[in-house]
Amino acid sequence: METNSVQQMTATGKICAKYSFVTGSGLFLFFFLTRFDPLLIIGTYYLVLALLINSVIFLLLVFTALLQPSAYRELLITAIIMLLNLPAAYLYFYLVMQIA
C-alpha cells in the first residue's frame, strides 16, 4: 500500500472520530437539555451505526498497520484516537439511562 493510501486512511479515521464525537455530543446535549423522548430512539440508532462504521475503520487501520510495518505508528495512533470516543460514548449512554 502506498503512503498516499495510508495518509487517506489516517485522515478518514480522524475525520470519522471527530464527527462521531461531535454528533454524539450534540445528540446527548440536546436530549439533556430538552428530555425529548424520541431522541432515545434516534440516539440508539446513531450509537449502533457509529459503532459499525467506526469498528470497520478501526479494524482496517489495525490490519493495515500489521501489513505495513513502515506505517504502523501513524496507523496505530489514528486507531487510538478513534478509541478515545469509547469513554465518552459510554458516559453519555450511562447518563441518558439515569435521566430517562
| Largest sheet properties | none
Supply the number of helical segments.
4
Order of secondary-structure elements: HHHH
| Uncertain regions spanning at least 5 consecutive residues | none
Give the helix level as a range of percent.
over 70%
- How big a fraction of the residues is strand? under 5%
Total discrete domains: 1
Average the pLDDT over all residues and give the rounded result: 95
Distance between the termini: 47 Å
Assembly level: single chain
Overall radius of gyration: 16 Å
Please tally the β strands and state the result. 0
Q: What is the overall shape? A: elongated
Structural class: mainly alpha
Transmembrane segments: 15-33, 39-63, 75-95
Keywords: Membrane, Transmembrane, Transmembrane helix
If you had to describe this structure to a student in words, what would you say it looks like?
With about 100 residues, this protein is mainly alpha-helical. The protein has one domain. Helix content is about 90%, strand content about 0%. The N and C termini lie far apart (about 45 Å). The relative contact order is 0.18. The model has no long low-confidence stretch (mean pLDDT about 95).
